[in-house]
Design goal:
Radius of gyration: 20 Å
Distance between the termini: 46 Å
Largest sheet: 8 strands, mixed
CATH topology: Rossmann fold
Strand content: 15-25%
Order of helices and strands: HHHEEEHEEHHEHEHEEEHHHH
Strand order of the largest sheet: 1-2-3-6-7-8-9-10
CATH architecture: 3-Layer(aba) Sandwich
CATH class: Alpha Beta
Number of domains: 1
């Protein structure tokens, strides 16, 4: 990486201060038992709360060991014997089905591990297997680690399980990075493999593609994509809109009072992105951010930023965010997203 490249990309992004710390904590925290099997509608073409509850549970249980995923599947009306767990080059999740539906579930970043993709001030756009639009290179590489390749042991799971779905409808979900992979999986399935996708439900999902990609996906699947955001969760605010990434699909937003609002399927605009981003920061933090930008500007007057300068600035961002972002654990799948959905995982 050249010094000039570091300087341009870092300074264009730091003014918005993307988060640079691991905030997925206690994802496998014990919750109250669910009670009974929910009524999942495999043919729903609009929002379904029971479907959101089951898919939210799936996104949360994906952080637990494979054996617990199987136990959850059996208790949720799915065929535990059909569950294929995949783990290749840090991309993890599982595919499970019953007679009516097949679920693809992606795990997010492991609790306690750095969210390196989240700290990347130079998120790279790259082409993908469809001719329209560009996507986040790191996210797409993570999907391709388990898509169309033989996994350790020689087994192929994706897209083979979807091709062999029979009359089952396809549902895709994930939390955090897993939500990004769910969106890209849906794009790969629907637009490249011509596999119908019945629904996509994501939780705390970052942006995954440029405006052209977003428009293409919104036109193809927008009404079937449901993106949940909890209050000040910072993850859905990155990569930055200013880096030419944008959201699409239906937004279901929970504020700090747990009041839910819905925005119909649409491609995110600059005005929406700015308002959305501003909602994640406190006043005190913005003052600290201004000081950081001032220091960086002063340095640039005399020389270009080096990689060491960038790392030092990232450390300052870490410290700012530790003390300045209110309710940083708004990203937690179990304690926040499942609670908003009025559901929980079985106690361990």
């Amino acid at each position: 990486m050249t010094e000039a490249r570091v300087s341009r990309s870092f300074c264009s992004s730091v003014m918005f201060l993307p988060l640079t710390r691991s905030i997925i904590e206690q994802q496998t925290q014990t919750a109250m038992p669910r009670g009974s099997v929910m009524t999942f509608d495999p043919h729903a073409s609009s929002f379904s709360l029971p479907n959101a509850q089951l898919l939210g549970q799936a996104a949360a249980i994906a952080y637990r060991p494979e054996a617990e995923c199987r136990t959850w599947a059996a208790a949720s009306g799915l065929d535990a014997a059909s569950l294929d767990f995949f783990d290749h080059r840090d991309t993890q999740g599982f595919v499970v089905q019953n007679d009516d539906a097949i679920l693809v579930v992606f795990r997010g970043t492991e609790p306690g591990r750095p969210m390196d993709w989240f700290v990347d001030f130079q998120a790279i756009h790259q082409s993908w297997d469809h001719k329209i639009g560009t996507v986040h290179g790191g996210f797409y590489d993570a999907l391709k680690a388990v898509w169309g390749v033989a996994l350790p042991g020689g087994q192929k799971i994706l897209p083979e399980r979807l091709r062999a779905r029979g009359k089952r409808t396809v549902w895709i979900t994930g939390h955090s990075l897993g939500g990004a992979l769910a969106e890209l999986c849906a794009a790969q399935a629907a637009l490249v493999e011509d596999i119908p996708v019945q629904g996509v439900y994501t939780f705390g999902q970052p942006r995954v593609g440029n405006n052209v990609f977003a428009k293409t996906m919104n036109d193809a699947l927008g009404s079937r994509i449901h993106r949940f955001v909890n209050d000040r969760d910072i993850v859905p605010r990155v990569p930055l809109f200013s880096m030419q990434f944008c959201h699409y699909g239906n937004l279901r937003f929970f504020d700090h009072k747990e009041v839910e609002s819905e925005t119909a399927a649409a491609v995110e605009t600059l005005a929406v992105a700015l308002k959305f981003f501003a909602g994640s920061f406190s006043v005190a933090m913005l003052g600290q951010a201004a000081d950081l930008v001032k220091d960086l500007t002063s340095q640039l007057l005399h020389r270009e930023l080096t990689e060491q300068d960038e790392e030092a600035a990232k450390q300052r961002v870490r410290e700012i965010l530790k003390g300045g972002v209110e309710k940083i654990d708004d990203h937690n799948m179990v304690t926040h997203y499942l609670r908003r959905l009025r559901t929980s995982l079985p106690a361990r």
